[in-house]
Amino acid sequence: MADCPNLAGCAFVGYCNENDACTSVNGFIKIYCKSEKQNQCIRKRLCDQFGKVVVPKNMMPNGAPIPGTSTDDWSHEAKNHRKVL
Ligand code: SF4
What we know:
Elements: H1 11-19, H2 25-33, H3 42-50, H4 76-79, H5 81-84
The structure holds iron/sulfur cluster (SF4).
C-alpha cells in the first residue's frame, strides 16, 4: 500500500523530529503511515473530515497526546475525536 498522502507534511512527524519528543515515531510511521492502518490514524481521519487546522501537532496516530504534552489547546474536534469521527 502507498504511504499516507499526508506523510511528507505530517505535523506529528515534524514535531517528533524537531523536539525529540517521541522516541517511537519510527514505529508509528511503520505501523500507520506506511501501511493500510493509515486509514485508522485519528490524525488522518480528523484531517479528511474537518481539515488539518483541527489536528494538533502533538496528537499521536492513536489519538492520544505525545506523553508529557498537553491537550489544553486542542480543538474541540481533536478533544472529542471519539464522538465526532
Ligand atoms: S501520522 Fe497519520 S496523518 Fe500523519 S502521515 Fe502518519 S498516517 Fe498520515
